[in-house]
Design a protein that fits this description.
By secondary structure, this protein is mainly alpha-helical. About 75% of the residues lie in helices and about 0% in strands.
């Protein structure tokens, strides 16, 4: 077989083989980079979990399932004799690696949405917008992120494109959560103040009830009702109780 021309220059066959080899190397590098990104995302998202932190080992399961397919197609590529089949198996392995990445990203987004729901529940008794000025905007952004990922048609995007969309949404919701966390000290202060106000209302209500009872007892005593005469000994105790409540307020 002729591998070069008379001038010592590479033949078309040599150039074609070199090109195929370079393309094969590119696919291996793409797979390596994809797997590296998947591992980094898993570590990053696990460290940033809010609600699902106690289940951090379980959140890897969908990604691990995809990585099994990565191994399967990589082994098939090694065993394939046809370069075309090898390339196709490497492409499939890379796609599964990308799916592993967006699987873990989707779980990260869900974790932050659950955190937001809990945040709303925790501070529902106070006016959150008095601290977080753009509270309605924050709420709308979370809703938009949720709707986008719930309604997106994956078939309209390549694995790379979909991965970019999910990663962008994850970064957006992480920024929101950081903002919410930075507001918690002030919100907790307002929550404590709200509890104190509620407590004072309850105590004042009890105060009014006890005062009414004392007045009723006084009326009976003044009219010397035989049935109520024994209660006169407790009048001083009632007044002592009222003084105690007054001092508490």
């Amino acid at each position: 077989m002729i591998v070069g021309n008379v001038n010592g220059e590479p033949s078309l066959s040599e150039e074609s083989n070199a090109l195929r080899k370079e393309e094969g190397n590119d696919k291996i590098i793409a797979l390596y980079n994809s797997l590296k990104k998947t591992r980094e995302l898993i570590d990053k998202i696990k460290s940033e979990l809010k609600v699902y932190k106690q289940h951090d080992d379980e959140i890897e399961i969908p990604s691990i399932n995809e990585l099994r397919y990565v191994a399967y197609h990589t082994l098939k590529a090694i065993n394939e004799k046809s370069e075309g089949e090898q390339d196709e198996e490497l492409r499939r392995a890379t796609r599964h690696s990308q799916r592993a990445s967006y699987d873990i990203l989707e779980i990260g987004v869900l974790d932050k949405i659950e955190y937001f729901v809990g945040f709303c529940e925790e501070y529902k008794k106070i006016d959150i917008s008095s601290v977080i000025k753009d509270w309605s905007g924050v709420h709308n952004k979370i809703t938009d992120i949720n709707i986008t990922l719930a309604e997106i048609n994956r078939s309209e995007y390549s694995s790379v494109e979909y991965l970019e969309i999910v990663e962008e949404k994850y970064n957006e919701i992480c920024d929101i959560v950081i903002y919410l966390d930075s507001s918690k000290d002030e919100l907790n202060g307002k929550l404590i103040k709200s509890f104190k106000e509620i407590r004072n209302i309850v105590v004042l209500t009890l105060f009014s009830i006890v005062l009414s009872l004392v007045l009723v007892v006084r009326v009976f005593v003044l009219y010397k009702n035989p049935i109520m005469t024994f209660t006169s000994k407790f009048i001083d105790s009632f007044y002592f109780f009222l003084d105690s409540i007054n001092n508490f307020l």
